[in-house]
# Entry
Amino acid sequence: MSRVAVVTGGHSGIGRATARLLDKQGVRVAVLDRDGTPPVDVSDPAGVEAAVAGVRQTLGSVNIVVNAAGIAAGGLPTDDHYIETWQNTLAVNLTGAMLVVRACLPDLLANGSGRIVNVASTEAFGAGRFSSPYTVAKHGLAGFTKALAVDYGRYGLTANCVCPGATLTGMTEAIPEADRMVFARRRIPAGRYGRPEEIAHVIVALTAKDASFINGAVIPVDGGMTAQTR
Ligand code: NAD
# Structure
């Protein structure tokens, strides 16, 4: 019997690459995305509950959750709209992941080998300038992942966190190519941005049934960026 995965943010970028790779491996994939059909906003508790109930009914019990939905937002605490930015960013990037996990947990625990992969960021290890709401959300997501690993590890469930560095997706497409190249040359040992498929490869590896002893890990996938000190 093929497994069932819920992939948030699966309409674009890293989530889409993950959904495609899981599908290739014979996993039945449900995408929850605000740009999907129907649209699902992961920050809406009732919407998430209804979407997961729909997945259960159409595809069956959920074995895998990948939380890739996210928004980039920045600013300084003194900015006019900072409170709104803070609330929106935490609602999607942190609370959204919790809501999806919470809705799927009964299934993940019942099947004895549930897999959760949360997509954080290298911002889970440190802070870039002017992006405190995003940084806080990603640190929180890494913490939530570890707490899940600790609370549910005894039930065969694993929860791990993948932390992409700069990756070519919808989130970074507005950055001018010249700026991307300067950043990549200075900061990324690989000398380039990553491709969404390179992040998806690691996410999907963590969803394997045999990936049963890696739990609570927070893994950079960043072309060596966080390893480089100068
Ligand atoms: P993306 O913009 O290509 O994809 C994000 C997806 O999330 C989109 O399909 C969007 O519709 C969906 N989404 C946003 N808000 C949502 C909501 N409220 N409800 C449901 N869906 C929602 O960006 P991406 O780079 O593929 O981002 C995937 C994850 O990777 C994000 O969590 C992001 O923070 C993280 N990340 C990306 C980079 C990068 O450089 N691209 C780096 C580090 C971490």
Observations:
- Residues 4-166+195-221 form a domain with the Rossmann fold fold (CATH 3.40.50.720).
